Amino acid sequence: MKLKEIERTAVQAWSPANNHPIYLATGTSAQQLDASFSTNATLEIFEVDFRDPSLDMKQKGALPASNRFHKLIWGNFGNGSSESSGVIIGGGDNGVLTMYSAHRILSSKSDPVIGQAEKHSGPVRALDFNPFQSNLLASGANDSEIFIWDLNNFSVPMTPGTKSQPHEDVSVVSWNRQVQHILSSAHPSGKAVVWDLRKNEPIIKVSDHSNRMHCSGMAWHPEVATQLVLSSEDDRLPVIQIWDLRFATSPLSQLEGHTRGVLSVSWCQADPELLLSSAKDNRILCWNPSMGEVVYELPIRSQWCFDVQWCPRNPSVFSAATFDGWINIYSVMGGNLEAQQKTQADKISSSFNNLDPFGTGQSLPPLQVPEQVTQTTLIPPLKKPPKWIRRPVGVSFAFGGKLITFGLTKAPGQQMQQAYPHQVFISQVTTETEFLLRSKELQMALQSGNLLDYCQGKIQTAKLPFDENLWNFLKVNLEQESRTKLLKLLGYSKEDLQKKIASCLSNRIPDKQPLPEADGTNAAPDQLLVNSSDDVAAVSSSSAFFDNLIPQNMSTLEIPVTEDTDGLISQALLLGNFEGAVELCMRAERFADAIILAIAGGENLLKETQKRYFAKQKTNLSLLLSSIVQQNWQDIVCTCDLQSWKEALAILLTYSKHEDYSQLCGMLCAMFWYNLPCRGYFWTA
After folding, report:
1. How far is it, in rounded angstroms, from Cα 222 to Cα 131?
2. How far is CA 682 from the centre of its chain?
3. Given CA atoms 118, 119, 125, 126 in this order, what sign does their dihedral have?
4. Given strand 305-310, what is the order of strands in its sheet?
5. pLDDT band at residue 356 under the 50/70/90 scheme
6. Residue 661 has pLDDT above 90, yes or no
7. How many degrees, rounded to 5, is the angle at CA 276 between CA 2 and CA 338?
8. pTM, entire model
């Protein structure tokens, strides 16, 4: 999307990244004439204000120049003071190299020219500032001339070494972005020379073996020190070659997208995956060099673009200078050109307040825009977010104290074909050291299966009674006969109960102790109490859970565990000791309770209880009950009064077995006829 434009036949240079606001310097281009055929030269500075929606740029300073410019560059030198905005270096005809003070041009003060040299023998087409030392400037001209200038002493330059052979023009010079003493130069023949200023000699030369590579541009990789790109302006080979000096026998890869020669390249310093190129096919392409694909393309224009440059301060913006006399500023974030033009037209109309500007007082008619033959130009943004707006790092917590982080890593030595790795790191965050140690101890116990020793150790180290009881209960669940041991932990031991029962049977203990009052007085400390129905209703009303759990109109239960007879019977029942409970009931002459408990205790206990009950009862009815319950029909026959022989016979007819009936009747007849007592022997009928 186009942001700004200015009509100038000029070369361009952006202000350094640390300058604010953003400026663009333009110098009248050499070997180009506009429609006026003027030979004058001007150096201008424009403010690039993106807050202003218009396409125009405000001129902030202008200076007539004695020479037109082949190359313009803006550096940080002298930028330490508050009144300095750096220096602008212009390369002109006849080897003239001029240094201007940007601050003086902007403020229109004293002479902005602070240095000038004429050491080169031809036009100066190549300039570059050292990114590590702002006072070092490299320049290139005809006859393989390359000079290194110290701006503190602008009169005497140095050379990087002996001139390369054969002598030819220097198209581009560029400092390495990672190593400050490495400089490279490119020549129209397709050769690139890498210089080591410490050795004062070239260390390597790279060139295409096809001899069709005419270098028009060169740029170092922003992060990989050994990689650079070369562009070819030959229409027979309109390519961009990526070289790695470690494998300098042939290009590492080749970008093929232009149909005619490439005129300019610029590598984004904020994102190594963005490389701009302009060519004679009127196209401006943005490449991802590592993938070899075009990620952004501007619409085709009617004129060649001979220079593209990224803005150092705003990495999404770049400028393009064309041969038709325009310098345009674009954004790689996309946009709609027609919508922007309509907004500009509406703004112009609103400035006249919809009145005729010629004074007739009539309202302006609606703007009639002729229909365009071409379709709407919608410029898509980059295919993926550029590096400067990507999330550089991220973090998220996970279960178990895990911390997940991610971020991009820099690997200066890796190959261009490989994408930068996205690494995810998983680390353990420890905030509660003691808790973590306890957790590891438990994990080891679970893996080894030695949980009993683990629980025992916790019991021994417990500081509170509650903790000790808790671990005791956990340990008992892992042992044999856990139920019996759990009863002991609850305070109910069979041995202790036997002693209490024996003591109760040998001593006189009251059958009952006073029941606790409603306010809790006289209540035993270990007594489990369930309150009255009114209290339960009050509690249940506060919890829907208890409302569903306890049926309505259900009577409550109070389990006594005191030391009287009722309490001992309750404790015996809690432990399943029916014999002891029956014994206590028999001793207290609570025969009904004893019989009921004996039924629950089993057949043998029931028989023994019945026998003891009948032994204590000596009434006629009790004797009858004893004989019927115990099925002792001989006692009925032998002990029956002779006046009750009919009743005795009725009992035999009702209860006796068929095989015993005859014998029992014979015994009854013998007693009736002979009136003799039965002595335990049998009579026959």
Report:
1. 11
2. 100
3. negative
4. 2-6, 327-331, 317-322, 305-310
5. low
6. no
7. 20
8. 0.59
367 has a pLDDT exceeding 60: no
- Write out the DSSP string of 302-318: SS-EEEEEE-SSSTTEE
Give backbone dihedrals phi and psi of 8, rounded to 5 degrees, phi first: -145, 135
Q: How far apart are CA 461 and CA 629, in angstroms?
A: 61
Mean of pLDDT values over 309-325: 92
Residues 6+ apart with CB under 8 A from 154: 99, 115, 116, 117
Q: Using the structure block, give the residue that is written with the tokens 């703004």.
A: 347
Question: Lowest-confidence range among 19-23, 31-35, 100-104, 343-347?
Answer: 343-347
Supply the DSSP string of 71-115, one letter for each residue.
EEEEE-TTTTSTT---EEEEEEGGG-EEEEEHHHHHHT-S--EEE
Q: What is the CA radius of gyration of the chain?
A: 55
Beta carbons of 333 and 381 less than 8 angstroms apart? yes
Beta-strand pair 182-186/172-175: antiparallel
Answer whether 144's CB lies under 8 Å from 170's CB.
yes
Integer CA distances (angstroms), 430 to 68, 377, 427, 440, in order: 68, 56, 10, 13
DSSP state of 246: G
Label residue 582 exposed, middle or buried (CB < 10 Å: 0-12, 13-18, 19+): buried
Long-range residue pairs from 298-306, CB within 8 A, at least 24 positions apart, any chain: 298/330, 298/379, 299/337, 299/377, 299/379, 304/263, 304/278, 304/279, 304/280, 305/263, 305/264, 305/278, 305/279, 306/263, 306/264, 306/278
Q: What is the pLDDT of residue 189?
A: 87
Token readout for 391 is 């999330």
**Per-residue pLDDT reduced to its tens digit, 23-45:** 999 999 987 776 667 778 999 99
**Which residues have a Cβ under 8 Å from the Cβ of 658 and sit 6 or more positions away?**
none
Q: SS3 breakdown of the chain: % helix, strand, coil, rounded to 5?
A: 30, 25, 45
Mean pLDDT of the chain: 79
Percentage of residues of the chain with pLDDT beyond 90: 31
Whole-angstrom distance, CA of residue 251 vs CA of residue 266? 18
pLDDT at 526 over 60: no
Percent of the chain whose pLDDT exceeds 70: 78
The DSSP H or E segment spanning 183 is strand 182-186
pLDDT digits (tens, 9 = 90+) for 631-659: 767 777 777 776 667 777 777 777 777 77
Question: For residue 429, what are its two tokens?
Answer: 């965050």
For the chain, counts of helices (H) and of strands (E): 17, 33
What's the burial of 142, exposed, middle or buried (CB within 10 Å: 0-12/13-18/19+)? middle
Whether the CB-CB separation of 65 and 45 falls below 8 Å is answered with no
Q: For residue 354, what pLDDT is reported?
A: 53
Residue 240 pairs in a beta bridge with 231, 255
pLDDT of residue 489: 74
